[in-house]
Amino acid sequence: MSATKYIIEIATSDFATTRSAVEGGADRIELCANLAEGGTTASYGTLVQCREKFSLPIYPIIRSRGGDFLYTDEEFGIMLKDVKLCRQLGFDGVVIGFLHIDGTIDVERTSELIEAAYPLEVTFHRAFDRCKDPFEAMEELIKIGCERILTSGQQPTAPEGVGLLASLNKAADQRIIIMPGSGVTPENIKSLKESTGCREFHASLRRKEESKMKFIHPSFKDSEESYMNNSILAEEVKALKEALS
Known about the structure:
This protein has helices at 15-23, 44-53, 73-89, 107-117, 134-144, 162-172, 189-196, 224-227, 234-244; strands at 7-12, 28-31, 58-60, 93-96, 121-124, 148-151, 177-180, 200-203, 207-210, 228-231. The chain is α/β, with parallel strands linked by helices. The strands form three sheets. A four-stranded parallel sheet has the order 3-2-1-8, with helices on one face. A four-stranded parallel sheet has the order 4-5-6-7. Helix 6 (162-172) links the parallel strand 6 and strand 7. Helix 3 (73-89) packs parallel to helix 4. The longest helix has 17 residues, at 73-89. It is globular and about 55 Å long.
């Protein structure tokens, strides 16, 4: 009997963090900008550079802004264009998520982007954690052809939502992938695996590193925005994978 294959997806915020995640052995990348806002679509230049340089599966997030998941027609139009661009650039999948004002899944818009993305695979992101009925939502996403759901079990972090994650994974019955994300670390990923039965896990492993600038303007010396950069340590990605083996 072959060993269970586990997948580690790393959310990255730019080219440098993507390179570190790849060096650490990530199986897949969720490519974002602005992770502090939950992730928005990366710039054209970042998309092209990452696709040209890295051969592993990369799924750009398609999200025109931070905030809620209730979008205007104009915002949806932007995201439709971004999906088509990602398909043209040769990505492997995209990450999307839309809700109605009442907390139900916006099935119509989600379906439209799934069709526009084809043959790219589609992950429904943590908009799922803000929906009213997760089991009804899961069945709708299965019906329209989503490949996976990124979820923390409708709690701020996956360890807090472990009960719902386990129930969703059982109810999914291999019809859709349930991928725990948020707060996933080398210290808790083994427990999450054992408690949920899930095989794919999502982590950002976000940290900050000091700027290499030699001149620090005194008016901004304490400004994280000015002199701290996003960082991922390849060693932490390796540790995450090793904890699953």
